[in-house]
Design goal:
RNA_pol_Rpc34-like, about 150 residues, 2 domains, about 40% helix, two-stranded antiparallel sheet, alpha+beta, Arc Repressor Mutant, subunit A, 6 helices, elongated, three-stranded antiparallel β-sheet
Length: about 150
């Protein structure tokens, strides 16, 4: 299907794909550079707001086109989905002191020294059947293969 447009009109983002597309295909290199720019911005502040990300991307001049707040939000939300950032609400205390209470902000997820909770180290802590596990039921510590293996360890 062909689309025609007068020279004085800009094509819709539904047709062009918007800022994330170049020549009809997803520009993953451009997206990667923008994500890296956002991640570099967070460690300096420990906590960042969407407005902070918008300003950081503008100042970095990595994009030749003006990106909207909505587009930067899409980018930041993809970093949340990638487990690079955590979405939190400001408490107004400590590292959140400069951010109004209740405002959504983002923190960098520390990928180093992860400490698991006490329940994660035993099979019961991660068992999908824990809700039906009872001492005298079909699913029980006596019949659990994982629990017995863990006890033998």
């Amino acid at each position: 299907m062909k689309h025609y447009i007068a020279a004085e009109f800009n094509p819709s983002t539904e047709i062009t794909g918007g800022a994330w597309y170049t020549d009809g295909s997803l520009d993953s290199d451009f997206i990667g550079v923008l994500k890296a720019t956002c991640l570099k911005f967070v460690p300096n502040l420990k906590v960042a707001t969407l407005e902070g990300f918008v300003e950081a991307v503008k100042k970095s001049r990595v994009s030749q086109v003006e990106l909207s707040k909505k587009q930067i939000e899409e980018l930041v939300e993809s970093l949340v989905c990638d487990n690079e950032l955590m979405k939190v609400k400001s408490t107004g205390i400590g590292e959140f002191a400069s951010i109004p209470v209740g405002k959504v902000c983002y923190k960098r997820i520390d990928k180093g020294n992860r400490v698991s909770g006490a329940m994660a180290s035993i099979p019961c802590g991660v068992c999908p059947q824990i809700s039906i596990c009872t001492p005298d039921g079909i699913v029980s510590p006596k019949t659990c293969v994982y629990y017995n293996t863990w006890l033998d360890f």
